[in-house]
Design brief:
Blueprint lengths: L8 E4 L11 H8 L5 E7 L11 E4 L2 E6 L2 E7 H13 L25 H9 L2 E5 L5 E5 L14 H15 L32 H4 L1
Parallel strand pairs: 1-2, 2-5
Antiparallel strand pairs: 3-4, 4-5, 6-7
Helix pairs in contact: 2-4, 3-4
Amino acid sequence: GTGWVPDLTLIDSGWKDKQWGTEPVYILAAQAGFRGILPCKGRSPWQQRNASQTVVPLPECNLSYANGIWLADLDADAWKLKVHHGFLQPFGTVGSLALFTPPRDEAGREKWQRHQNYAGHILREEWQKQPNSSYRWVPEGSRPGHLRSQKANHYLDATAYAIAARTIWGLWTIRPKQGPPTKPAKKPLTRDRGPPSETSWIHRR
């Protein structure tokens, strides 16, 4: 079939092999003319900047331009929270997220184990309250003053970047269509109390 080309992809600007002397994300984005691909950097804490000739402020994002290079400066805390909140919301509601449909094996059965790696990355960090009443992302299972080592969380970051890219591009969550109003359900009759009749005491008063 035909290939699918995304409208906008955000890639962590720091992604590279330690031995590489180049910055592949910036090179890739520059080759695309910074159209469809943008380097990004998640920060915590993050601060909204004022609009200028080199800065475009957006929700939880500053698009900055310097020396011919665009960079999406992201509020890392906010975008990761959108991921966790999305999975916590009921499926089908505005802003909700769900796992992808897994591939099938030769017998036609869905390979649900394919979700384990992705779901594991999503849960690798926790939004945890600190002793000073502030909140921060910490490795899963950590306790205040006892941080665990950080495991791979690439899919958490990638999902957060995808939501950020959608917002930068101007796409918003599609709200479900409002269906026709439903009639209130009638209360079922019970053995103890039936519907009021014309001869009930309230009508005789």
